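User: Can you predict the 3D structure for this chain?
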Amino acid sequence: MKKLQNILLNATSKKILGLDIRYDSVSAVLVKNNIKENFIEAHEYVPISDQKDIESIISYSLDIITKKMDITGSVCIASFPSDQISYRNIQVPFKNRKKIRQILPFELETTLPFKVDDLVIDFNSLTSDDNTDLIVAAVEKAGIQLYLNKLKSFNVNPKIITVGGSAAVLCLTELADTPDNFLFVDTGNEKCAVFIVRSGQVYYIRSFRLNSIDTSKIESLCLNIKQAISTFEEIFHLDFQPDVIITTGNSIGETGFERNMESILGISVKQTNLVAGTSVQIKNHPGNSWKPERMDNAFALSLVELKGLNSLNFNKDYFSLKKYWEENKNALIITGFLAGVVLATSFSNVIVNTYLMNKKLSSIEHKITDLFKTTFPDVKNIVDPLHQMRVGIQKAKKSSLFQGETHRDIRAIDIFYEISRLIPEEIDVEVTKFVFGFEDLMIVGNTDTFNSVNKIKSKLEQADFFKKVIIGSANIDKAENRVRFKLQIKL
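Assistant: Here is the predicted structure, written as structure tokens:
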């Protein structure tokens, strides 16, 4: 009997690796899961200083982690740096996830500085009465593939790749005793992210860089938090007052910054400690080696798999039948008989559902055709409305203001914000043309004096985004008594 118990215990046990990868540190937590208990078998924190690209960060950190931890056979849940992901809030008039996934590319195409075909997109639905509010996350396929390839070189094949910091806020809403309305701030030395939770759901995500030129990092952090709350209130047309701000991460490099946050924002601030709120124990390590602010994000990734939480996932190719069989063979053999019974009883339901789904698909195709006719009334010959709509949208994009590819690390909205922030209000200036290229941008406008042109150049040179600002031309327009100028800016 005891031998049979040991066989069942080994067959149903597994190891879960939470791998939190960011530009200033990498954290790894290995959780052992079986029928009797769950415990943290090993954990490791690797600070990053010299490595700047994701490939070198993964190589450097995993070389250290794999030497100190036995991750063989573990299920990996990994995070992707949150500042490399685009977030959008969208509302749709239906709840069906398949419908939502079909129309998302059309909804996002005009709002993102990338081709939709080059993106991996996932979303979470928010509870609502009539329409469905969505929080959508999109990341470039090339970046995810590069990330996966590097992990696979260390025999790590993540089951889930999710947004950095999102697992921790998911655990706080689902597993911890937290208020319904709070802010979760994932801090880093240079880059941070804020998650707004309302009624126990993550409604809004924003990532940002800390600007320390004119202000301290804590002031920059609080300013970005205020802007995130204001944007959230404007999107959802409501007033939002969080009960608490919960922080984690490697911090912004300022001692006691939580107290300063509390003083500036007037909201209570506390740090996470996810282990303290779970039954998971730490084994084989002294208690003081565990630092929640460093390890909670990686531990939360393990909890996503352990508790079966519904997380955003950018890895769409993981669940092939062969991989699933190889990783769950023992458990499937034990539960195979029960699975066979369930499959037999549900076979008739599959046939009925397939018929109903085909009818729904036919209805969707009719709606797409109707949408195409409404959007492009001049087109009379409709053969493939989906393809024809994509062609029409591409033509419209070619005639828009922003053409070509934008710099991967700099968004247009950040450029606009820096320009409006740096140019003083007292300068009389009108921008008439703005061209955003891959490595540079051009600003054309007019102002009152040549001195104002020099002031504008001097102010823009302070921006982190701008490498060099050159006055291309500056001439007096006698008809309007204005100075017309052209600025060439290297990114």
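Residues 44 and 75 are 17 Å apart (CA to CA). The longest strand covers residues 38-47.
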